[in-house]
Design brief:
The protein has about 90 residues and is mainly α. It has helices spanning about 1-20, 25-30, 30-65, 70-85.
């Protein structure tokens, strides 16, 4: 009984290894240079997304702070920043 159970586990493990070997990710990264190229493009996309996201977030924050009139220090300060940005 235990021998049959071990044999079925070995067959299941073999099937899983075969499926892993045929996986799309491993086929796409079958060579070192392909893997390096993929990671390079991935890094570029991550960097671009981070910069664009931060730009939108900062622009929205400055815009929102510029419209705050009940806090004169922050409102005046952001208005000056907006004027400096628009004048350049």
């Amino acid at each position: 009984m235990a021998d049959q159970n071990n044999q079925s586990e070995i067959v299941a493990l073999t099937d899983e290894l075969r499926a892993l070997r045929d996986h799309k990710f491993l086929k796409a990264h079958s060579s070192f240079w392909r893997l390096i190229g993929f990671q390079f493009v991935r890094g570029l996309a991550f960097g671009l997304g981070s910069v664009l996201g931060a730009t939108v977030l900062v622009a929205w924050t400055v815009y929102a702070l510029g419209h705050i009139d009940f806090i004169p220090i922050i409102g005046d300060w952001t208005a000056q920043i907006i004027d400096n940005i628009q004048n350049r």
